[in-house]
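Re: 2-acetamido-2-deoxy-beta-D-glucopyranose structure - here you go.
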Amino acid sequence: MLFLKTVIFLQILCGFCFIGLHSKIQHDYNFVVKEAQYTRLCSTKSILTVNGKFPGPVISAHQGDTVYVNVYNKGQHNITIHWHGVKQPRNPWTDGPEYITQCPIRPGEKFRQKIIFSTEEGTLWWHAHSDWSRATAHGAIIIYPKENRAYPFPKPHAEVPIIFGEWWKQDVRKVFTEFLTTGGGPNNSDALTINGQPGDLFSCSKSETFKFNVDQGKTYLLRIVNAAMNLILFFSVSKHNVTVVGADGFYTKPLTTDYIVISPGQTIDALLYANQEPNHYYMAARAYSSGTAVPFDNTTTTAILQYNGNYTPISSPPLPYLPYYNDTQAAFNFFGSLRGLPNKYPKTVPLNVTTHIETTISVNTLPCPEGHSCAGPNGTRFAASINNISFVAPSIDILEAYHYHIKRVYSKGFPTFPPFLFNFTAEYLPLELQIPKQGTKVIVLNYGSVVELVFQGTNLVGGIDHPMHIHGFNFYVVGFGYGNFDKEKDPMKYNLIDPPLKNTVVVPKNGWAAIRFRATNPGVWLMHCHLERHLSWGMETVFIVKNGKGSNETLLPPPPDMPRC
Ligand SMILES: *[C@@H]1O[C@H](CO)[C@@H](O)[C@H](O)[C@H]1NC(C)=O
Ligand SMILES: *[C@@H]1O[C@H](CO)[C@@H](O)[C@H](O)[C@H]1NC(C)=O
Ligand SMILES: *[C@@H]1O[C@H](CO)[C@@H](O)[C@H](O)[C@H]1NC(C)=O
Ligand SMILES: *[C@@H]1O[C@H](CO)[C@@H](O)[C@H](O)[C@H]1NC(C)=O
Ligand SMILES: *[C@@H]1O[C@H](CO)[C@@H](O)[C@H](O)[C@H]1NC(C)=O
Ligand SMILES: *[C@@H]1O[C@H](CO)[C@@H](O)[C@H](O)[C@H]1NC(C)=O
Ligand SMILES: *[C@@H]1O[C@H](CO)[C@@H](O)[C@H](O)[C@H]1NC(C)=O
Ligand SMILES: *[C@@H]1O[C@H](CO)[C@@H](O)[C@H](O)[C@H]1NC(C)=O
Ligand SMILES: *[C@@H]1O[C@H](CO)[C@@H](O)[C@H](O)[C@H]1NC(C)=O
Ligand SMILES: *[C@@H]1O[C@H](CO)[C@@H](O)[C@H](O)[C@H]1NC(C)=O
Ligand SMILES: [Cu+2]
């Protein structure tokens, strides 16, 4: 079954060799989902893992490859796995979101998932897409250029994944069920992690702190993934700049910067030049959190960049500069500086928009059920919505309902414009606007439609940034701004020349973001906020893209082993 195409000898000089010295490009992976014991923050607990690893195994491929992953659920709970940022042309069947494109893989069952890579190149990631299991069930996907093709930047000497996560001392499953039961916000995590380690600012994790060894004068490629559940993060390396060369699995124009910002769902490829005096330097990440009175894990996670050589390392290295927690300007200066690399593929920003969609994205409240007490604002329950509809997951997945014409699973007619116009970003908003409708509605798109989608953040309950992610597509981020989107003035300022191609866009607090894409991928595709609590509260909807006319423009048939409901 193991088909070895090439063997790449990666010269990773780290203490904890993450990719491994003999990492190979293979086209068949086995993912065994199971519990494993892990000790962090001085206590041991059982976590859900893939193959016993946290973070999980790396999938490596070349651009355009097709890979199969045999997922065996040897855990105690339902699970699904998603390949984040992989478009999966015509094949939503193995995309992964629970009750959207498949029923969960039950304990004891297996599912062979096909991953069809197409234009993606760089770093992406995979993660569980059911309840909150993605907290520990996630890993990097590395897509190398096609054989004999080069990176659009000097070849790095070595590369290393930098995967951010969040660690709870408690069982994450308990955190998940507790906040959904009480209606309040979820408990904060107790630590952020880099490659599974909180770092040496936490007294019991000093010795396991992630360390990355470098030679002075050489260049390294950091493959950065934010797998945290609820936190956008600032990251930087003490005394070093990094040069961003890719984001969300597409190359970007080189951007040299002393810090980066990365939301859950996003990935960044960045070059690090080891051009400083041999010593130990901190790499650090902590939250960017703009919500007023929204509690968050404000700890700092660290890893160490260690130069090789004979020297006495500094005993307490300084922490790098990181913007302040609520520095929205710093966050959007970074996002606004990213530029696509238009010459890599014949890809162009669509100019002739056929379908305009505008959606509000809001945090909401629902009344507390009779006889209960709820922990949300003023005794309510938290919810979240898109165009005032808080999504309710069906009990049969939408893709099968669509394909087999099963009625009453979902309905069409999701509003493509805010149902009620008000000053979305006003400081004070009437409380009655806060309560959303609930439903399972989808947006139907014709094959080939050219979509412009404007996400409009609102200040209902409280404004905050939302990292919006779409499955099955990459999109150009053509503009963003603060306040209410102005459809006359704002499009004049769009970047239609070299906007970045992304799968996750951060919509600024009390602001908007505009994206464009061509709906040339038939199937059922989820769109959602990648802050896990907002997703759990209903900030999601589904696109159904109809088949086109050509034989290569229709949904592929389902695999024989689709999990059953
Ligand atoms: C959440 O935090 C509260 C308050 O600190 C605590 O009582 C509760 O046990 C925590 N729940 C979980 C699941 O950790
Ligand atoms: C980082 O970049 C800034 C501006 O791009 C520059 O001023 C600074 O000297 C650079 N620092 C290092 C350590 O290269
Ligand atoms: C983090 O938040 C806690 C509780 O609000 C506060 O006491 C502490 O000073 C904060 N830590 C930092 C580093 O800001
Ligand atoms: C950021 O927080 C500080 C105090 O924590 C506050 O003084 C400041 O106004 C906040 N800035 C923004 C942009 O909200
Ligand atoms: C734009 O699209 C519309 C609808 O598909 C079409 O009628 C029109 O000719 C197109 N215009 C251009 C300039 O391509
Ligand atoms: C909307 O609310 C914002 C924030 O309070 C305010 O600055 C702006 O003037 C309001 N816009 C309109 C059109 O009332
Ligand atoms: C959402 O819908 C509910 C129910 O119709 C309504 O009461 C509420 O005002 C609406 N809110 C917004 C922001 O449209
Ligand atoms: C809670 O109730 C107070 C008083 O009615 C109101 O001013 C406030 O806006 C409410 N907050 C939320 C989030 O509903
Ligand atoms: C389908 O095939 C036609 C004709 O070969 C081609 O023009 C089109 O780009 C193809 N579409 C996709 C989605 O590959
Ligand atoms: C697991 O998935 C099956 C199939 O959809 C479903 O019937 C069952 O309720 C799920 N179990 C849990 C605990 O959600
Ligand atoms: Cu959100």
